[in-house]
Design goal:
Length: 189
């Protein structure tokens, strides 16, 4: 079976292509497919770039604390769900707040292997092409002011994210409405 592939196109024309793993994180994958193919991510920024750690996108207000009307179940070991996607360089994963079921729209790409994230976040894909551009993105200048979560000094804007389903049949997203608590105590480094 051919897994779905997600193409992130940046405003400058560069692309990052990921294989998605619905067998590991079906709730996360189906929600991401729905958001991506509906155009939700179009024109949103990569609002956090932390070299050696992660590149985070999907925020509607350009911060790590953007509000949403829904959340999804966290598909990772600490939340009682098996997920074998490791947070190695190029892994695609879903961010969340303190509550394990608070993920919604913010995703991140791992820049360098981060085994401390394994079992704590829902990995759902892996970079296939675009590793050189991942390095370029990881090296953009960012605001290092404490509490600002490393926003790029020159915005990095997503033109679009689209998912080719391959042989996969996407299911309607399973969302928690209203969203669970968006409390955040700064647990992400």
């Amino acid at each position: 079976m051919k897994n779905p592939t997600a193409t992130i196109t940046i405003k400058n024309g560069q692309t990052l292509v990921f294989e998605l793993y619905p067998d590991q994180a079906p709730i996360t994958t189906n929600s991401f497919i729905d958001l991506a193919n509906s155009g939700f991510y179009d024109e949103l920024p990569f609002h956090r770039i932390k070299k050696g750690w992660v590149l985070q996108g999907g925020s509607t207000d350009g911060t790590c604390e953007s509000p949403t009307e829904f959340s999804i179940k966290g598909e990772f070991a600490e939340n009682g769900i098996a997920n074998n996607v490791r947070h190695v360089k190029g892994a695609l994963s879903m961010g969340h707040y303190d509550d394990f079921d608070s993920a919604a729209v913010q995703f991140f790409i791992v820049h360098e292997d981060a085994p401390t994230l394994d079992g704590k976040y829902a990995g759902f894909g892996m970079l296939q092409t675009g590793f050189d551009y991942l390095e370029t993105l990881a090296n953009v200048a960012t605001d290092e002011t404490p509490g600002k979560f490393n926003p790029p000094l020159v915005p990095v804007i997503i033109e679009s994210i689209r998912v080719d389903l391959g042989d996969y049949t996407a299911l309607p997203p399973e969302r928690i409405i209203p969203a669970v608590s968006k409390a955040y105590t700064g647990n992400a480094t």
